[in-house]
Every structure is written in structure tokens, then in C-alpha cells.
Amino acid sequence: MNAKVDELARKLVRNFNDIEKTAEVRLPLYETLTARLGTDTAAKHLGASVDIVAAGKRSCPYHFHHAQEEMFVILEGDGTLRVADELIPIKAGDVIFIPPGPEYPHQIINSSKAPLKYLSIGTRHDPEVVEYPDSGKYQAIARGNADVPLSVVQRKGNSLDYWDDEP
């Protein structure tokens, strides 16, 4: 390949089998191996990852986004989609669409005895607010052009007064 082809491939192509995977574990409920695909690519408004959830575990807390829309493609295994306080069986080949908003809090649960592998694709709207109904928390995220995004996790009851510490 020539230099231009190498540069284009570096910015535009990822193979999830070759990407470094990160273990995200918080026992007893959460255990997943994640390959973040969009990092250091040319993508500006899309994020993607491949997640492998251990048998009987969950990938992340029950949550909903105010701005981000998500899609999950179940690649291997089966499990349960917890959405809007209902449980829906999911299996390899299923494609799940989650729009933003409080109507669709969601969580993927591996309710089987084998690993559950899925592709997660999401819009990366900025700023973003994520709410966690089980714990009463929210996360505010502003990426902008900063090397390190602003990310704050709070409970609603911990809010400051708008005028706090202002002159």
C-alpha cells in the first residue's frame, strides 16, 4: 500500500478482532470486555464498540440518553433487553433501536450461560446528559474540542444553586 492508502485505512478502518479490548468489571452484576472502535478515527458523530458480556452479567447500568440514539446488533449468544421496565428476549441476529428520551431506559443483560457479543453504535451528540433510573444519578458530558471531556456524575438532590459562589 502507498502512504495515502495507509493514512486512509488508519482513519477509516477498524477490525474489532484486532482492537485492544478493555475489561469493565464491577461485581457482582457487571462484567464485559469492550473494544472501542471509533477512537482515533475520522468519525465525528458516531461511536461504536463491540461488547462481550460474561454469562449472567450486564454490560452497563440501566440508563437513557437525552441526546444520543443507539443501535445494538446481537452478534453471538442470547440474553434480555431491559427496556421501559419490561424484559424482552434477544438473540443473535436481532437489531435493537433505542431513541433518546426517558421513554426508553435500557440495559442489555446476558441471562444465558454463554458469552453475549454485540455491536453497539451510537450518535455522539455533544453535550449529552445520561440518566440512571435505578440509582437516581445523571451524567453530564461535554466533549467539545477538548482533549479531556467534561464529565460529571451527580444525583439530582446534590445540585447547587445557580448563583452559588458567584460574585
UniProtKB/TrEMBL annotation:
Keywords: Metal-binding
Superkingdom of this protein's organism: Bacteria
Annotated signal sequence range: none
GO MF entry, a single one: metal ion binding
Annotated ranges, domain Cupin type-2: 53-121
Protein name in the entry: Cupin type-2 domain-containing protein
Organism of this sequence: Paraburkholderia sediminicola
Record lineage: Bacteria, Pseudomonadati, Pseudomonadota, Betaproteobacteria, Burkholderiales
